[in-house]
TrEMBL record:
<keyword id="KW-0614">Plasmid</keyword>
<protein>
    <submittedName>
        <fullName>Partition protein ParB</fullName>
    </submittedName>
</protein>
<feature type="region of interest" description="Disordered">
    <location>
        <begin position="30"/>
        <end position="56"/>
    </location>
</feature>
<feature type="compositionally biased region" description="Basic residues">
    <location>
        <begin position="39"/>
        <end position="55"/>
    </location>
</feature>
């Protein structure tokens, strides 16, 4: 190869890793349209860490029937599901 090597003068320099420098670099990147590309966790609704509430997926008609029955009894859908589960477990 002939000619000058324009990259020969480049030297590696350590990058700043303080919280302020990282924040500033992130702000500049976001302003110029760069997006966060870190891997995401699994999609979907996570169970509640406090109550460990489940979010079952049911057919729309079944969901409407559960909601109507819970309202008729004056309890929450969760309470109705708990009652149904206890009956199911105690089934011979």
């Amino acid at each position: 190869m002939t000619g000058s090597n324009r990259l020969a003068g480049l030297k590696a320099r350590p990058k700043g890793t303080t919280v302020e420098e990282v924040r500033r670099v992130d702000e500049v990147g976001e302003a110029r349209g760069f997006l966060d590309r870190t891997p995401r966790k699994k999609p979907g609704r996570k169970p509640s860490p406090r109550t460990h509430q489940l979010h079952p997926k049911v057919f729309p008609t079944v969901g409407q029937e559960i909601a109507a029955e819970a309202e008729r009894l004056g309890i929450t859908q969760g309470q109705l599901i708990e009652e149904m589960w206890s009956i199911y477990k105690n089934k011979p």
